[in-house]
Write a structure and sequence with these properties.
By secondary structure, the chain is of the alpha/beta class. It is built from nine helices and eight strands. Strands 1-2-4-3-5-8-6-7 form an eight-stranded mixed sheet, sandwiched between helices. The structure holds D-[(amino)carbonyl]phenylalanine and zinc ion.
Length: about 300
Amino acid sequence: RRSKRDFSWTAYYDIDDINGFLKNMSEMYSKWSELIVGGQSYQGRSILGLRINTPGLKDSPKPVVFIESGIHAREWIAPATTTYFINELLTSNDPNITALRDQFDWRIFPSVNPDGYHYSYTVDRFWRKTVSGFGSRCFGADPNRNWKYNWGQHSSSHNPCDYQTYAGSQQFSEIETRTLSSYIESINNLLAYISFHSNAAMLLVPYSDSTEHIDNYDDLIQVGKTSLDYGYEVNKKERYSDPGTAAEILYKASGGSMDWVRYTLATPLVYTYELRGNSFHWPPSRIYEQGDEVTQMILGLATEAQKL
Ligand code: ING
Ligand code: ZN
């Protein structure tokens, strides 16, 4: 077993080490956090996460904030900033962060495509998909095109050999999306669902395959802008683009997780952050920059959301 000191944010780690970090944190902070299983992978890994839920007044349930990271294997900065955020939540003495920790029931999954991440880490740096059907000439499906909402419509390939956006043989063909979606469905009181990708420096709101605006679009944009303002204050370098739907500011895409969550569960706050980077590269020595930025962006989101 690794000690906490062996894990840092100046390097990228393979999936076993990320899971080791989660396990260690759950043991060191066992009063507040527990290791949770959000689903299973094709190669038999558990999709591991941390639930952080500090004891509250009486046993009144807190609103749940769900963080899904690393659904695309090669977007390494997403799992790295997510473990950074976990570490901040559990170890920071900043009163804003301890308040953030105490206000919500957190479910945080740094790597929801663990097979793909391991394959990207060890074999093919630019692998994006799952590895279902490994051994066939063409294998894997895009887990962010595989969810059961308008499946297979936009920016979705139906060719299993497509390196990027093969949507799978059918909706929820991938065990990762199927099992994770049932875990999400079992959550009561889900306030916010946040998905992390890279590298467009953007904040996206549902729906990704339509330019129509959903009923609380204005609130989502307002909360989103505050989130980006908080993030900007950290490094004061380049700003993210103004928030919007993927259909309007990136490209139309169907079958993504956030659209399914919004449509199926009517979750009020649903976002996809596209973190910074270039060609999926972000220097390991500078992970902490985006780690701090992500921490502040989540703090800004939560702060503004409480004013609604
Ligand atoms: N971008 C996302 C993708 O899956 C996206 C954009 C987000 C599409 C949410 C649909 C829903 O293509 C990256 N970089 O993967
Ligand atoms: Zn992605």
